[in-house]
Amino acid sequence: MVINTNISAQNAATLLQQSSMNLSQSLARLSSGSKIVNPSDDSAGLAVSMKLGAQIARTGAAQTNVNNAASFNQTQDGYLQQVNNALTRMSELAVSAQDVTKTTSDRNLYQQEYSTLGAYVNDVATKSFNGVSLFNGTTLNVTTDSEGATFSNLGVNLSAATYTTATGDNISSISGAQKALTDTEAAVSQLASDRANIGSNEETLGYYSAQLSSLSNNLSAAKSQITDVDVATESTNYAKQNILVQSGTAMLAQANSMPQSVLRLLS
Which residues are CB-contacts of 207 (< 8 A; sequence separation ≥ 6)? Predict the structure, then answer.
C-alpha cells in the first residue's frame, strides 16, 4: 500500500476524462444536429459530405437554369399564340380582298387592317426576356446538370423572310391579295413548325427539371446519412455517457480516499 502514487485514482481520472469528452461530444451533436461537429469526428465522412454539398448546390443552380429556360419558352409561345391569330386574320383579309364585288376603296380598308396586323407581328419580333431576344432565332444552350452539360433550346426567328414577306404584302389589289394569301399560308405553316419546336423544348426541359429534382433529393439523403445525427441513438449515447461521468466522479472520489486507510497503520 503506497501514498505517493495512487494508481487507482489515476486510472479513474483517465476514464472520467474520456467519459467527459464523450459526453461533451454527444451534447454537441445533439445541440447542432450534426454527427460531424469537428473534422476529427469523421474526416472521411466530412470530405464526402463537402463534395455532396457542393454538388447539391450546383444541381440547384442547374434546376434554376432549366426553370428559367422553361419560362423563356412559355413566354415565346404566349407571344406566338397572338402572332398566329394575327396571321390567321391576315390570311382571311387576303381572301376577302380577292372578292370581285369589292371596290378599290374596300380593298384599301382591308389593306389598312392588314398592314396594322403586319406591324404587330414585326413588333413582336423585337421582344426580349430579361434582355435576351425572344425571336432572333438563336439556339440557347441550357445547362442541365451539375457538371455543365447542356441542352440545345431551338430558337424562333420572326425576322425570317417567311414572316417579313407576309407582313410586307399589299392587298389593295387582287393580284397583291393573291400573293399575300400564299405568303400568309407559308407564314402560318412556319409558325406551326416553330411552335412545335417550342413545345418540344418545354417537354424536354420538363424532363430535365424532374431529373434534377430527383437527383437533388437523393444527394441530400446521401449527405444526411453522413452528417445528420440520429437523435434517438445519440440521446441513448448521451444518457450512457452522463451515467459514466457521474459514476466515474464517484469512483474517483473513492479512489482518492483509499490512501487515508494508511493512517490506520500509523495509529
Answer: none
